[in-house]
Design brief:
Glutaredoxin; about 160 residues; alpha/beta; 4 helices; two-stranded antiparallel sheet
């Protein structure tokens, strides 16, 4: 029998409204270029993680499931922080990850976004505005997280 994953250790907060959104331009492990500024009109889930982070590894299968569901107006991007590209490529192959992984080997992207806890996930609405930041492991295929993602399609209050 497989152990049950609890995902109970997460916190969701409103994004620092006084903070402007840092630019994000990067190339994923498959060579596709991503520019966050080009994704307006779509909701974005931007996840920061590392292979040494147990909670990151716990939630990664649920991010992969969300990616496979292929919601038309949701872009899922993950940023692997402070690990070599060959290491991350091996990890992705061994775990069957096909979701977009943007390497951040020096932690430059994470630093620009103020990320210090892993995993951290930004929920960005269709106007390109970060609404919330979630820290800790989340079941991204569960009803609570799917509700957060649905809310990104609605106008901010």
């Amino acid at each position: 029998m497989l152990p049950s994953l609890s995902f109970s250790q997460h916190d969701i907060k409103t994004w620092r409204q006084s903070s402007s959104m840092p630019p994000l331009k990067a190339t994923d492990l498959n060579g596709r270029e991503w520019n966050l500024a080009d994704l307006k009109g779509q909701s974005v889930l931007l996840n920061f993680w590392a292979t040494w982070c147990a909670p990151c590894k716990e939630e990664m299968p649920t991010l992969q499931t969300l990616h496979e569901l292929g919601e038309a107006d949701l872009v899922l991007l993950t940023v692997n922080v402070r690990e070599s590209m060959p290491h991350v490529q091996r990890y992705a192959r061994s775990t069957g990850l096909t979701l977009p992984i943007l390497p951040d080997p020096k932690g430059v992207i994470a630093k620009a976004w103020g990320i210090v806890v892993y995993p951290s996930t930004l929920l960005i609405d269709t106007t390109g505005t970060p609404r919330q930041i979630v820290t800790g492991a989340v079941d991204w295929s569960g009803s609570e997280a799917l509700g957060w993602l649905r809310a990104l399609r609605q106008p901010a209050r």
